[in-house]
Amino acid sequence: MDTTIYFFTGTGNSLQVAKDIAVKLGACELIPIAKIWQRENLASTSDNLGFIFPLYYSGLPKIVYDFIENIDLTKSEYIFAVVTSAGDITELPLQQIEKLLKVKPKAKSLNAGFLITMPNNYIIGYDIHSEKRQKEFFEREKAQVEKIAEIIKKKENNLNQNVFKKDLTRAERFNAKFREDVNEGDKNFYADDNCSNCGICEQVCPVNNITLVEGVPQWQHRCQQCLACINFCPERSIQFGKGTLKTQRYHHPNIKMQEIINQKS
Ligand code: SF4
Ligand code: SF4
Question: Are residues 30 and 130 in the same domain?
Answer without folding.
Answer: yes
